[in-house]
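Appendix C: a fully annotated inverse folding record. The material below is reproduced so that readers can follow the format used throughout the book. The structure is listed first as tokens, followed by the designed sequence.
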């Protein structure tokens, strides 16, 4: 979502005649789009924003100073204190007013400016976008979150759930299709609660537009409906891949997290999904070290991960977020114990991902290519319908879908030959 907000900002500023540059040295304005879901992102923002003080403004700049802006979730949360703490920050804006940024930059030529709104007037996604790739697009269908999972800061910085009108989403999707987009990803913190139960209807409408690939993220397990599950067997463009964050396998911890489902309910959803498509690729998010997590609680998570068999798991060590209910739960679990659990989980995730990938050995799959590998220019990388990364020898394939014969399946990528 944050990366998408950045695309909107880049699109808006370019449409006003600004030019995006590749380095801070060449820039007159720097904009940090921030996340505060975990502490590591906070630390990075404060460090980076302060350190660019030492990079001089380019010689021909029409500005007297480089204007440093901080937006997104840290801006929304910290407001004025950002300017008090980091003296070279000139503009702070939040998650509800990215459309006002050009005016704020203008004002900041004279004086520092902070603008944080409690809610959005317009849906911020009505701004132009500047996409990194011509073949893939993200399309936000809703903003905010009403779930208040006890560890999570998102509802406080992104505000309450607000769905975008269906026709606006369809119109934007049609524009993307006309521009040659092959893969569309619908975005929201909890897409399954789109417009009080209309997500399935929206999926069907978008499917009719005929993208090569349709995906969505993220789904809350308490809200995914049977017809959305069935859509994985009926909608032609919907890819066989679902990110379904479970967070924990322990019912006690799930309750403390305010997730409002049990491990049994979650496993029931996995069964239903595999009945619709036995080969569907599943991924999830896990928090290790939630306050009071015991070894037994952790083992419940470990066993759930082992049982489901994910192609990818994003595991995070719990990060205490001030202002959330979980921040008040006392916790005396030593750091080393949490780190050890995390390491054990990471090993299991890799082992299971390797095993799951073996099913694709010697198969032929459609790969949507993204360009050359960063490490080796003779290699092109792309994604399978299930979202696995594929490496092949080749040149200039970005944006093309090709049939690939898979000959080796590693833990995090597959290799093959173009047919
Ligand atoms: N709306 C999405 C998740 C958004 S945040 C959902 O509910 O699925 C992305 C992930 O960050 C979460 O799934 C969770 O695993 C992790 N996360 C959120 N708050 C966290 C915290 N305080 N500490 C560690 N991880 C956290
Ligand atoms: Fe955070 Fe829970 Fe909302 Fe996801 S569903 S953004 S984890 S509060």
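Designed amino acids, in order:
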């Amino acid at each position: 979502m944050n990366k998408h907000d950045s695309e909107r900002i880049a699109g808006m500023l370019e449409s006003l005649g600004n030019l995006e540059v590749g380095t801070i040295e060449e820039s007159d304005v720097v904009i940090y789009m921030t996340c505060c879901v975990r502490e590591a992102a906070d630390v990075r923002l404060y460090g980076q924003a302060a350190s660019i003080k030492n990079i001089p403004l380019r010689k021909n700049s029409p500005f007297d100073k480089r204007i440093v802006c901080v937006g997104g979730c840290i801006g929304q949360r910290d407001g004025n204190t950002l300017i008090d703490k980091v003296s070279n920050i000139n503009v702070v804006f939040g998650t509800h007013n990215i459309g006002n940024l050009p005016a704020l930059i203008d004002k900041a030529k004279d004086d520092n400016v902070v603008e944080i709104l409690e809610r959005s007037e317009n849906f911020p996604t009505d701004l132009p976008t500047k996409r990194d790739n011509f073949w893939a697009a993200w399309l936000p269908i809703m903003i905010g979150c009403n779930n208040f999972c006890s560890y999570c800061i998102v509802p406080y910085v992104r505000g309450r759930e607000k769905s975008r009108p269906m026709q606006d989403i369809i119109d934007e999707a049609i524009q993307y299709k006309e521009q040659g987009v092959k893969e569309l990803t619908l975005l929201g913190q909890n897409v399954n609660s789109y417009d009080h139960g209309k997500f399935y209807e929206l999926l069907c409408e978008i499917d009719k537009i005929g993208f090569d690939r349709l995906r969505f993220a993220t789904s809350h397990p308490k809200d995914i409906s049977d017809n959305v599950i069935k859509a994985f067997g009926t909608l032609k463009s919907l890819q066989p891949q679902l990110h379904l964050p479970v967070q924990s396998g322990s019912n006690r911890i799930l309750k403390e997290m305010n997730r409002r489902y049990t491990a049994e309910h979650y496993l029931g959803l996995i069964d239903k999904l595999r009945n619709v498509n036995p080969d569907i690729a599943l991924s999830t998010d896990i928090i290790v070290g939630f306050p009071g997590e015991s070894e037994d609680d952790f083992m419940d998570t470990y066993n759930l991960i082992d049982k489901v068999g994910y192609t990818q798991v994003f595991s995070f060590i719990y990060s205490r977020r001030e202002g959330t209910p979980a921040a008040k739960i006392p916790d005396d679990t030593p750091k080393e114990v949490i780190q050890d659990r995390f390491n054990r989980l990471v090993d299991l995730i890799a082992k299971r991902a390797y095993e799951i990938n073996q099913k694709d050995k010697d198969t032929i799959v459609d790969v949507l290519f993204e360009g050359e590998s960063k490490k080796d220019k003779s290699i092109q990388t792309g994604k399978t319908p299930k979202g696995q990364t594929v490496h092949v020898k080749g040149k200039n394939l970005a944006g093309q879908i090709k049939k690939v014969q898979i000959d080796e399946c590693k833990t995090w990528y597959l290799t093959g030959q173009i047919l």
